[in-house]
Amino acid sequence: MSSVGRPSLIFATASVCVAALCALGASAQDSKSAPLAKELVQSLDAAKLDSMAAADPATPGAFVAVLYIPGTQLLVVSAKYAAPQLLTDKITSKDYRDVYVDL
Description:
Radius of gyration: 13 Å
Order of helices and strands: HHEEEHH
Number of domains: 1
Helix content: 40-55%
Number of strands: 3
Largest sheet: 3 strands, antiparallel
Strand content: 15-25%
Distance between the termini: 33 Å
Number of helices: 4
């Protein structure tokens, strides 16, 4: 796969995984989320990313972000944001960690 298409694929995979993780709930023990979390970690590792963020497709004005600490934790947060355009701009600029911190 070309280096141009790879980030798009990683982002799409991560977005789907993050949305699915949020839909399943916040319980770390939820066995339905474990395979999705593993897939997301693999995608983040492959892309050499430690964070990812996206608009929540199910809730207008809400965003989802993950912070990945390799070998340790995958932290997921979802929230509505008072100024959605600011987060949209950060996502466009690939400032995913900043989105995580803002949420």
